[in-house]
Amino acid sequence: MSTAKKDYKKITTKSLIDMKAQGEKISMLTAYDYTMAKIVDSAGIDVILVGDSASNVMAGHETTLPITLDQMIYHASSVVRGADRALVVVDLPFGSYQSDPKEALRSAIRIMKESGGHAVKLEGGKEIKDSIKKILNAGIPVMGHLGLTPQSIYKFGTYTVRAKEEQEALKLIEDAKLLEKLGCFSLVLEKIPAKLAQQIAESISIPVIGIGAGSGVDGQVLVIHDMLGMNNEFSPRFLRRYMNLYEGMTSAISQYVDDVKSKDFPNEKEQY
Ligand code: KIV
Q: Which residues are listed for Mg(2+) binding in this entry (predicted)?
């Protein structure tokens, strides 16, 4: 199977399904604002996820639970303005889809109408199947999310690897098949054993995008702040840091402070 990169003009949900069929891995990163989205998009990313991880990395909350639908719409609309090629997927935040399918649909419609995003992502399987159906029936593409679903962190009580036990692994396989059957266009698997993730990716036709789920899936996603090394505190095993932006930015900023204090900045050429 060829792994060459095809030159898609604009990535659609169909492009992702084609990529899986052709053995081309899907690249996905989060972004939460216009400038970052522009950089990520021009670097050639396939999918930009406006993740509810904005609650952690943008707002400084401990979990993803506090972020609101209005805040997600604000982040997503900024990202959409910066993205020309990538597919923009927007997380439905905690509390905006769990109580009933009608509310889920209203939330998804607000995301699509007010942000211009191209698809929504929801966490969960069988428990939220009616909400997923309702959203899909309205013509809104849905990406699923199983495994370590951070909106359920208080149920799990830990951020450790999920589905190591057979019972949870079996439920995960069932849920993945259900999401495919319902019509989700893809699925994120977070922090589960690589073998299980590969087994799922091979048993369903929709693309499976992993984070901490090994190399046997159809694509990878990371939180942009983590892969750029903007925070030093978060170091899970699955994370590859491509830069140490924390150090780079700290040193640039302290140089600026020194230059201002020492009256080196601005110099003759930097004024009118
Ligand atoms: O919110 C997020 O960033 C996510 C990814 C970790 C998949 O859901």
A: 52, 91, 123
- Do 209 and 139 have their domain in common? yes
DSSP-derived letter for residue 144 is E
pTM (two decimals):
0.96
**In angstroms, what CA-CA distances link 272 with 202, 256, 267, 268?**
63, 20, 10, 8
Positions marked catalytic:
190
pLDDT-flagged residues of the chain (< 70)? 1-4
The CA distances from residue 97 to 44, 69, 127, 257, in Å, are 31, 10, 11, 46
User: pLDDT tens digit string along 49-65?
Assistant: 999 999 999 999 999 99
Query: Which residues have CB under 6 Å of ligand 1?
Result: 30, 49, 51-53, 91, 188, 190, 211, 221, 223
Residue 130 shares a structural domain with residue 265: no
